[in-house]
Amino acid sequence: MSKKAKVIFELFITFLKVGAFTFGGGYAMIALLQNEFVTKKEWLSDDEFLDIIAIAESTPGPIAINSSTFIGYKKAGFWGSFFSTLAMCIPSFTVIYIISLFFDKFLSFKYVEYAFKGVGACVVYLIFSAGLKMLKGLKKDIFSKVIFVTVLLVFIGFSLFAVKFSTLYYILLCGALGLFFYGVKKAKEDKNDIS
Predict the structure, then answer these.
(1) Distance between CA atoms of 191 and 195, rounded to whole angstroms?
(2) How far apart are the C-alpha atoms of 174 and 145, rounded to whole Å?
(3) The pTM of the whole model exceeds 0.85
(4) pLDDT tens for residues 13-44?
(5) CB distance 31 to 130 below 8 Å
(6) 63: closest CA among 27, 12, 93?
């Protein structure tokens, strides 16, 4: 087996494991992905991982699928992305298919209801944990601090006053601000180079 085939196989098994043992959607998977690919395998740096999560969140589609596609492509090209994405989808598809066959009976079990309540509490922790790890990994420059504080204050204000504001708008606004400040910085550097 070639080195690339071994990497593709390892990607497939890792994403199959992450997809099978993560409840609560893509945000809950971020902590597991970071643990697998940054901490254990050391295939990605903290900065690369943050970039992948930012891209995965700002492109169409679920963050877990987008992340698996980007990580797979980074490590093994097209086939890495293909098998990583497939592995991420297989567990969810299988579980949903089986549940759909017995959906009414499935929901009537008290133990299932209790299990979902327990999993729900764990999902809150996983999302919070992933957020804290990403916050620690952010560059500590003035731009990042201003964006973080601004988004946090807007989020809290809108939540307190029950203003509906999609997370998509937060992402688009922060992306636009990032482009604006990058343009200003680049213009200043070009002006200094000319002088």
Answers:
(1) 6
(2) 12
(3) no
(4) 999 988 887 766 677 788 888 888 988 989 89
(5) yes
(6) 27
